[in-house]
Design goal:
Length: 438
């Protein structure tokens, strides 16, 4: 029975994305790390740079160490070159390069895990660098946390951010400042497993990356804010002019100005909506990664969450406020444009009604003139027809006996007039029936 069921299941057609979707949740697992470990991380925006371009550059690095580039799984791969390990990932807006290396004697402390990597290769990475971070993972036995706090908390005007993470299994120290173009973290491992250490490092790198990508919207918000201030003032002026009334020509001019303003606002919406939406998504990711750190406060030290709430949240609130303000302005311009368009349409309808009334008056005048002409036509037709009767009676005078042509002509006139009038009336009725009138 079981074998029959399995054979039936094997005959089911597989969805083409089944395995890809299943493997997606297992993609990009954290790299297991043991202290001591140096981690250097680069995130570069890849506008105009394709995945094959980045893979070709990675292949150059692998060939320099006499290694073959492994097959990329989707848009990420892991490269072990013995001297160091490299993890490459390609995301929607950026690509990340994470280097892992055990500290060696003679390493340049300023280069972190990049001591074994050619500076020329680093400089030629396709794209524009957005994030550069060094993380130093040390054991608590090698570097006591109290020593780090004492060394980093010297009076220098800089604020140290520190907390215990992973339910007290490690300490994290940073200041989120750029020194020689790099931000730096110190992670002191007290009782982390290799997987926990890898997850902690990955979360710190994601916090730094998503913090920067979220802030990409802040300059956009400032630029859009200037546009909105000008557009709101222009809209208020247009509404004042609309409220003051004016000629139909003035209203059409106002409608043209409102249409132009609407186009400007909608152009701004189209250019910034994605950026604001992405910023909100990245900001949520920052909050999620901080939650996953499970921070505990160190006496006198702000935590990473407190730092983000104080420094990042206002910028994100500004972006959200500008986005709402922009959508509100777009709606207001659309409503006012519709209101003015309605007024213009009503005025056009009024003009059309006046035009139709004038056309009706002209039609009535034409009808009266036509009726007058028709009366004259009856007289004219009767006259010519009576003349024909007169000529005919004169020609047949000898046959008519006592009746004279004049008498016959006189008697024929009312008959001819009645027949002509009746004919015209029947023609009018026929035309009215053909036009659908009753």
């Amino acid at each position: 029975m079981i074998d029959a069921t399995r054979r039936t299941e094997n005959r089911l057609e597989q969805h083409p994305l089944r395995f890809r979707l299943n493997n997606e949740i297992h993609a990009r697992p954290p790299v297991a790390l043991e202290a001591p470990q140096l981690i250097s991380y680069l995130a570069v925006t890849h506008e105009g740079v394709t995945a094959p371009d980045e893979l070709d550059h990675l292949r150059e690095l692998a060939q320099a160490f006499a290694k073959a580039l492994p097959e990329a799984e989707g848009e990420h791969l892991f490269l072990d070159l013995n001297a160091f390990r490299l993890r490459w990932e390609r995301h929607t807006e950026f690509s990340s390069y994470t280097f892992f290396r055990k500290p060696q004697a003679g390493d340049d402390p300023a280069r972190g895990a990049l001591s074994a990597v050619s500076q020329e290769w680093i400089s030629n990475i396709p794209g524009r660098m957005l994030v550069a971070t060094h993380i130093e993972l040390r054991s608590a036995a090698e570097v006591p946390p109290s020593t780090v706090m004492k060394r980093l908390s010297q009076p220098s005007g800089l604020q140290l951010i520190a907390s215990q993470v992973a339910d007290g299994a490690a300490w994290v120290f940073t200041d989120f400042l750029l020194t020689d173009g790099w931000s730096r973290f110190m992670v002191i491992d007290a009782s982390l497993t290799p997987r926990q250490a890898g997850r902690t490092v990955q979360r710190l790198l994601e916090i730094e990356t998503y913090r920067m990508t979220a802030l990409l919207a802040f300059p956009v918000a400032k630029e859009v804010g200037v546009l909105l201030t000008r557009a709101e003032q222009e809209l208020a002026d247009l509404m004042d002019r609309m409220g003051g009334g004016g000629s139909p020509g003035d209203e059409r001019e106002l409608l043209s100005s409102l249409t132009r303003l609407a186009a400007q606002v909608e152009r701004s919406v189209a250019r910034s909506t994605y950026r604001f939406g992405a910023a909100a998504a990245y900001y949520r990711l920052v909050g999620q990664r901080i939650d996953e750190l499970r921070e505990q406060r160190l006496t006198g030290m702000p935590t990473i969450r407190e730092f983000m709430d104080r420094r990042l949240s206002p910028a994100m609130s500004t972006c959200a406020a500008i986005a709402r303000r922009q959508e509100d302005l777009s709606s207001r311009v659309a409503r006012n444009s519709q209101l003015l368009r309605t007024r213009v349409d009503i005025d056009l309808q009024r003009q059309n009604q006046l035009l139709l009334a004038q056309m009706n008056r002209r039609a009535r005048l034409q009808l009266r003139l036509q009726q007058t002409v028709e009366g004259l036509s009856v007289v004219a037709i009767t006259y010519y027809a009576s003349q024909l009767v007169n000529y005919m009676s004169k020609g047949a005078k000898s046959l008519l006996g006592p009746l004279t042509p004049e008498v016959i002509t006189a008697v024929s006139i009312p008959i001819i007039a009645g027949v002509v009038a009746l004919g015209l009336r029947r023609m009018h009725h026929q035309l009215a029936e053909d036009a659908g009138e009753h």
